[in-house]
Amino acid sequence: MKNRKQFTELVLVEAEKEKLEESGKSFFQIDFLKAAMIILVIFDHMVSWGVKSEIGVTLWERISIPVFLVIMGFNMGISFQRKGVSTLKELYSWSYFKSKILRYIVPFLVLYGFSTLIGLILYQFDITAMYRGQYYPEHGFIQLFTGILPFWGPGNWFIPVIFGSIVLFPLVYWVFTKKPVLTLILCFAIEIIMQLIVFFFLGQITSWEESYILSLFMTSFPFYLSAIGLGLWFSFNRKPFSRRNLFIWILFPISLIYMIYYQFFGFQFRIGGVPLLRGDYHFLIFPYSAVIFLLVMMVLPQKSDNKFSRAISLIGKSTYHIFLTQMLGYGMISAIWGTHYIIDVGFTIFDALNLIYAWIVFISFGVLWYKMDQEKNIIRRLLYYVNFFLVLAVIVYSMFVWLNPPFIVWVPIPLIIILIYGGAGLIINFALKKPLKTTTLAIWTSFLVYDFIITILYLKILPPTEYLIQNITIGTFLLFAIISTVLDYTLRK
Fold first, then answer.
1. pLDDT digits 0-9 by tens, 223-246
2. DSSP letters spanning 49-86
C-alpha cells in the first residue's frame, strides 16, 4: 500500500519540477499575449462571419492563431536553449516526450473521454448522429485518429498542429542550431511547397474525399511552419529593431497590404478560379502578427508581480486548458442551437450577453482545470475531473438554454442542486482552502454523478409523476454526503 501511495502521489513530480523551473523564468509578455489571444479566440468562435466581415477582424481579431504559432516557436526555442540540449538524442529525450505528454496529450485524452460522453447524452446516445451533427462531412473518419474529437468543437483543427509540433519541432531546432538563416528560409519554403501541393494536386475541391485530404494538410504542423520559424528566430533575439530582425520590417508592409486587400476587398490569389493559398493563416499573414509579438515583447516588462499581472499570467499559463474548455462548451452550444455562431447580423442584447457568459465560464473553468492538473494524487485528480466536467456541462446548458429567450421558468431541482454543488465546491477548495479528504470527495462525486443522471432523466424521460420519488432519493443521498462531510471536518486532528 505504501508503494502504491508513493506512486500515485509522485508520478508527476518531474513534470511539476519542470513547471516550477519554467514559471521561475517565464515572460510576462508571453502570458499577456496568450491571455489576450484566448479572449479573441472565444470571441471568434461565437461571432458569425456576417458580423466579423464588417469590423475588420483580419487586422485585429484573427491574429490570435498566428500569434499563438509564433509564441509556440519562441517558447520551444527558449526551452531548448535553457536546457542546453543540442544533439538529436538530447532533443528527442524521454523527459522531453514525457513533459509534452503530461502537458498536452493527457488533458486532450481526458477531454476526448468526457466530451464524447456529454455529446452522446446530447444526441441521445446516437453516435452516428453526433458525428454527422457536429462537423461532418468537413473531416473524414481518419481525422478521428489525428486529434479531431468525435464530439467536435471549434478550434479542434489546432490540436493536430500541436501534436505535430511535439514530434517535428526538435528536428527543426536541431537544423536551426546548425544553419539558422537557411532553416528560416526553409520554413517558408516548406510551407509554400505544401500550399503548392494542395493547389496542383487537389485544385478545386469537388468531393468529400478531396475535402478530407485538404483537412489533413490544413491541420498539419508544416502547413504553418513559417510562423514557427519566426518564433524560433526571435527566441535568439527578440529586439524588434536589431539588425538581425530588420527583414521582418520588409515583410511587414507586404503582409499588411495583403491583409487589407483580403479583408476589405475579398482579394485572393486565384488561378483558373482556384485559390492559390488555402486558409486564413499562411506566410503572407504571419509577418504582421510577428511584428505585434516583437512590439509587445519590447513594450511590456518581462516581470510584473502586482495582482492584476498575476491574474493575467495565470490566464496566460492556462490557455491550453481554456482552449480545450471552449471546444467542449461551443461543441455543446452547436449541438443545442445548431451552430456556435450565436452572435449574427441583427443580434440582440441577449446574444451579446452570451459572449460575456462564454468569457466568464470558459476562462474560469479553464484556469480551474489547469490548477487541477497540478494535483499529484491521481485518484483525487480523477475525482476532480468528474466533478469538473459534469458541473461545466450543467452550467453551459443552463446559461445557453435557460438564460436565453424564450426563458424557461421551470428548472429541475436536480439541476439546481448541481449548480449549488459547484459553487460550494469552489468555496470549500479555494475560499476556505480546506479540501475534502479523498474518501469524502468520492462520496460527493458519487452523489454528483447520481444527481446528474437524474437531471438527464428529468429533461428527457421521466414523467412529472415520478419527480417526487427521485427527489426523495436525491435528498437521502445528499443527507448521507453532508453527514460524511461533517464527520470529515470534526474528526480531523
1. 999 999 999 999 999 999 999 999
2. HHHHTTTTGGGTTTTHHHHHHHHHHHHHHHHHHHHT--
